[in-house]
Predict the 3D structure of the following.
Amino acid sequence: MGDDSEWMKLPVNQKCEHKVWKARLHGYEEAIKLFRGIDGEKSPEWDKFQPLIVKFVTDSNAVAQLKGLEAALVYVENAHVAARTAGEVVSGVVCKVFNQPKARARELGTDICLMYVEKEKAEAVQENLIKGLENKNPKMVCGCVETLHRALSEFGCKTVGLKAVVKALPRLFESREKAVRDEARRLAVEVYRWIGGALRPALQGVSPVLLRELEEEWARLPGAPATQTRFLRSQQHLRDATLQQHQQAEAAPHQAQGVGTGQCVPDVDPFELLEPVEILSKLPKDFHDKIEAKKWQDRKEALEALAGLVKSPRLEVADYGDVVRALKKVIAKDTNVMLVALAVKCVSGLASGLRKKFSTYAGHVVLTVLEKFKEKKPQVVQALQEAMDAIFLTTSLQSLSEDVLVVMDNKNPSVKQQASLFLARSFRASSPSSLPKSLLKPLFAALIKHVNDSAPEVRDAAFDALGSAMRVVGERVVNPFLADLDKLKIDKIKESAASSGGGEEEKSVTKTQPPAGVPAKTAQPSNMAPAAEPAGGPRKAKPGGAGKGRKPAVPREPAVPREPAVPRGLQESELALEECEERATAVLPASCVQLLGSTNWKERLASMEAYLQAVEQMDSSQMPCQALVRMLARKPGWKETNFQVMQLKLRVVEVVARRGSFSRVAAGAVLAVLVERLGDGKCGGSAREALSSVAEACSLAWTAEQVVSMAFAQKNPKNQSEALSWLAGAMKEFGFAGINVQTFIVHIKTALGATNPAVRTGAVALLGVVFLYVGPPLRLFFQEEKAALLSQIDTEFQKMQGQTPPAPSRGAPKRPGGQEEEEQQEEEQQEEGGAGVVVDLLPRTDISGQISAAMMSKMADKNWKVRKEGLDEVASVISEAKLIQPSLGDLPAALRARLTDSNKILVQQTLSIMQQMASAMGPALKQHIKTLGTPAITVLGDSKVGVRAAARATLSSWEEQTGFRAWLEGEELAAELGRENPFLRQEVLGWLAASLPALRSAPPDLQLCVPALYSCAEDRNPDVRKRAQEALPAFITHLGFDRMNKAAAKLKPASRDQVVALLEKARVAMPAKAPPAKPTAPPPPAKPAATRPSQSSSEEPEPRAEPRAEPRPKAAGKPKVHAGKKAAGKAREEEEQERSGPIFILLPGGKELRARDEKNLKVLKWNFPSPREEYVEQLKVQMSPCVARWMLEELFHHDFQHHIRAISCMIERLEQEQEAVISCLDVLLKWVTLRFSETNSSVLMKAVDFLKLLLPCLARMDYHLNELEASAFIPYLILKVGESKDGIRKDVRSILSMLCKVYPASKIFPFLMEGARSKNSKQRAECLEELGCLVQLYGLTVCQPSAPRSLKEIAVHISDRDACVRNAALNTMVAVYNVCGEQIYKLIGHLSDKDMSMLEERIKRSAKKTPPVPAAPPPKQGEDKAPPPHLNASVLRKPSEQTASKLRQIRAQSAEQPAPLPPAEFSLDVHLLEQSGSPIREMPELYQPSPDLLKTPASLRSFLSRPRPLPVCQEELRPSPAHSINLVISQVASGDVNTSLQALEQMQQALRRPGVMEGLSDQLLLACCLQLHLARSSHLANQRTPRPLVTQLCSRLLDSMFMLLGVPSLACEVSVAVLREVVEELLAVLLDSNVALLDQGSVLLEANQVLSLLLEKTNHTRILSSLLVLMQESLESSSTSKFSELVMKCVWRMIRFLPATVGDLDLDQTLLALHNFMMVFPRQRLRALTSDLPYRTLKTLLHTLYKFTGPQILEHLSLVEDRRASGLETHLKMLLSAGPRDASLYRERHENILKIFNKITSQENCTQGLSALAVFRQHHAEVDLTPYLRRLPAPLQTLVQQSLHTHTSKKTPAAGGPAPQPSGGEEPKPSEYQESALRLLQESNIQAPLSSISRLCRASQLPPPHQGPPEPAASNLDDLRKKLQRIKDKH
């Protein structure tokens, strides 16, 4: 009792786990009571017992287990969390309960399993039960079978999957235990009760006795269909409906037969229950040899082997192409009739076993089989008939019709007879929808020929075929084709149609049908449903509820492409011709009817005019449309030869179709004529209008199908192309509703294969229109087309990319109010679903049958390789199917299991498959969000970056198809967000912040995420907190601030204060985000007429009154109540107050958002020949948050007067609202481009005036246009350069000159080049003049993309037909000649003799007329502007007002007077400084070396020997205007050597002034590189250019580069791209043999020193990255090995610097550069190179980086996305495993060295530093101090080296004796160090200030040095003197 009292005190959950069985028993009893007392299935009490339920079931004590099962049943029934334990609990029941001897335990186990099924866990339950069937214990097997039986009986086959059950039945029947066999028999009976005869084929392998017993039991089953008696939790509404039906049945017993029929037995295809058999591997290895053998016995042996294999009812899908071709050869050429019959049977077996998969091979054998009907042998004919019937079931009659028509003309009567009989059988097996008129027309024509055939059997077969067709499609459809037959033959056809039609020829069809037990409708394809009946004729009333049966299908499938029924009003019976005449005569004038058939065309014309007038004036309700249009067919009818009469007839059809109740019967009478007249040059337009009216009356879907079918039934390619063209335009007018995409794809493919190019072009254009509605999935159906045709299709698709389909403007018939409401709801559903409604029109494949059990078992295998094979098979199935249906069978459960796979590779592959599903399934993917989408969200919490990225991509692809709203429904997202995983929270919050703002309305379940959001806002992880704060505004937008605040009130006080503060902060940010959402609201589409420019100005007062009503949206739908004067006055005051406010609204981030939308193709790109309506609407939406409401109305008013007022107001406010103008500048410029397209000159002139004020204002604000603004404005401005009005043209040219201030001239140049290609001669001439001005002002650097290419294109215009264009082109060439001289002839390339003579003459003439011009003409008064406050850093600076004035001067001068000297604009404008009133500072003179200096030897480069004189004034040189420096830099790259030298001299002066060149390093270095390249490639090759001048140019260039790199701030700002160009050019200079000859190699020395300085002084991260890029390019390209070696030497030089510079490196960027290099050159490829230097270089670099950083280097791979791709991470880990490094040791040693050197360079601690360095060197002799010494000045380097040498000499005795001491054993005196340092400085000719040397001496406690120069060494004195002499000669 002591023990009992001990466990009695324990809580219930601990009792249930106690080791004493009595304690557990007592715990289970208490648990049952507790479970029954818990309120709510989501109570937290349930969570305590969740891990214990498995132990309840698997208790080792039988007594306790029984009570545990009862407790588990109660728990599963009531707990919401019980569903999570389904797999474990059911597995425990199978293993530990079903083998118990107690029946009560087994019964409870079964109840638990069924309860899990009720809780939506049927898949998990069935999976474990199927596994239990493989157990060896018969009791367990019986329990599993019994549970399956009960589950199927109660829940039905929709819940319990039958495929796995049926597969297991044969194995159960073979069990040794009778109990198992009996249970299996009961299960088989239950399966048969649900699916009927579809079970028989799967049980063909069981014993005949057992099968006979099963048949007897099946026969005893009641005839009533099986119904579901137990329902899932989500099906409780069905349970209530069923109960109600049974109550009604009990109340009315006579109606009991109808009860329960709503739950029909689901259609199960027995073919799908069969396992496919693989036969190709079972064929004999010599099958193909034997089937072609000469002996017929060998061929027979091969065919018999194949015939035995194809008897399998279902064959595995594989490549049977070779087998089919071999069989075709036997059928066609084999002389042995027996073998032919055997081969035909093999074909039949393949077709039956493959079904639809055989359609790819059907086209290869059909013609051969039909032609073989010439054989007389009955067995051969019967085999051929069976084969044709089997082939027909695999494809459609449409695809077989061509081959059938070919054999219909065969001379053999047997072939014709059998072809007709095949058509008869095919017609009877088809539905009316599968027999369109386009198919029947050619077939009926051939059959009618057979009706008149001489052979009676052919005639009888033809009558049978025609009768079968009439029986299926009706007499109305067939009668027009039988017009030429006599009454006797028509009666015989009708007699054949009335008969049953079942002859002997039908036997083969019945053989291929499903078994008798299968419901009849399962044997029909889905396209044979009665709802798909063609709407061409009257429908017969169907008994019962046929009409009712179609109603429920409408809301469930709103995207069905077929029309559900013919709309009311379109049904009409066909009238006889006499009745038509009678009705038409009653409404038409008598004379009109009489003269219709007159032989005089004038009388017919007058008659038709009266006819048309009568129709137009006729009452539309009384108009007999069919009679009127059929009357037009009276002789001469539609064969009218006079085009005027024919035009009137077509006009009559158009009016009747538009005004009357036009039925499809009436349309069928005229459509053929309209299609035939489409290609008529005179009547084609009228025919198109008539077709559009017919389409509006009868729906475009039906009309288009008829038109295309008729057009391609004709042979006129003109009609076909015009029909396609009309259809493309009609789709834009009517929309895409109801279009059968699959049918049109077939017709378009036919058109694409036409021989006429116009037809193919029309088909491609139509595809582009269809692409607007369907999107990218459309391309999947044309991948098999030829490459050239596919390229045209892709080009057309690219044109349509990003465009939105226009709103339908026609085809909206008036319908009753209720129907209009339904249509509104459908439109709302389409908006929620996005484009998916249209995408669903595409044909999709059901792949559930291809997801086999073997595939499922592979994905669940323990071996990851097997699981990967299963996933690969799934991916291949989806990719082959292209577009799939949402039914996936067991695939979602299998994929969900793989999302939690331990192998991350398989997880990523699963996510990739889910992305495939998204693109293949489309919007129907929404139903799999809960099963697959939510588990994919869980993957976002994975620790691997790659896995998270794959999950993000998957969710994005799913969101595109399903929309974001569906993801917010339910509590799954809130549960995921509540998990304590920082990665998961970051990703989910980022996803919410990005997707919620674009959502129109969020579901209420979003409120569930708020507590988790607040928790994330206080998370420990800063990234999670940041993401939560970013998501807050989106939550406030949808839930409201009040609701969010109330939710925050429930938090703890400390948390509440913090969260409320964040809410207030987010609330403040809301107004900036709200305006962009307003344009998408109803106001823009609410008044489409207000933006139409076609309306007259008489409607002006109405739009003016609308802005007053807009601020009151609540009263918009009410009548006006303020009609008095007081209300009117108040409205006027409000309007005036509104107009007095700002007109431009400053919207932060608005411009960037619009640019991003246009870049991502979310809006239309601003590119059009003439503005369309959608562009205007889009711009209005974009401008609505940027300007005031009343201004928006003015800007987009239809009256031009309002536009003028708007521009005037903008001009007034331009200066006051500058910042707001800039924020909406892009849309303002776009609006101005719209005004350019108007013909009203007043608006145009006003817009030009606005631009003339806007651009200077932008220039004063130092604003530059971005690429979006420029590309949307400049092309349309250039179009106005060719304006016919001189005033506008001049103003536009002045605007172009102002444009250079706010946009680089080099970027304007390409726009002008594009304008010069215009067809407008004035525009070409003006653009060429502008190009000449730009070249004359900016030099050749303005020519983009390159000078040769641009100048060649300009030179083409010399031969233009227009004289003005020729003169402009010649003037431009003269301007180029003045800049580059004779080099122009190389740049322009080859010209004709005539053009060359004109150019040379113009150049000579301009040279004669050019007067001497001063260097810089004085500027005009008033043109000077204040210089900008700072220097801009852009590559091409905006010119100042001086530049604009020079542009105007150049345009004003004659083009024949260019200045031969470099223009003065390229010099620093000192005169501007003089006129500005500031103190004048003299510019420093160029250094002139003194004669005394020549006596001093020099060992370094010449420019180092020059002193750097300070300016005369000690103050900073006043910066010149911004454009001057940029123009000087542009002149550095000039083609003229003298110009370049002058510019370089001025740049060197600027470089000596601190701060002047900040931000311009890239520009100057690029210009120097370009000039170096020009010097090497052009100047050295040009014999006219003196070599000394080239030498001086190269030296000056290198000197400038050296000076720039000598300034640390300038050297560090050089970018990676520029560093790459500089290094490449310097290495090219070092390798150029011609450069080596210049001045005995002095240029090479200078280049080498510049390169050394570049490697040492620039940013080490950037220079190393640029060297790696250059190294990669040199190894890839055909560069010389010498160049690659030099690049690698530079890398080695950087490696030597690494010990001292590794602390300054950006390791993340460096490792990214190494990763990119190794992606191209992995280690294996480097080893394969002929030289091992690249591999050693890379290896040494990685080793050195790792050496000085240690294992922490692996933390700097953050920028590398795929670390394993390049092998970089692997290599670094190898270094780590080879020998782990202590990073702290290296870091500490590096820091100690830096501290020692800091002491050495300081004045107070220099001696201590030298001593410390000596001690460090003594203990760490292996450390290389060279990189640290290089940072010191040269004198201090020598001082340190000598100090170390002295210390080493003292500490290291020689041969055991004392160390030798200098100067007789004494330590060197400080004066010796001083003299040594000074001597080194002076020998190197480095003019260091004496003060710096004195500081060095004071730091070392040395006396100051003397100032006398030392004597040079005598050995090299002569050489130094020669070099100095050369330097003197240069200067």
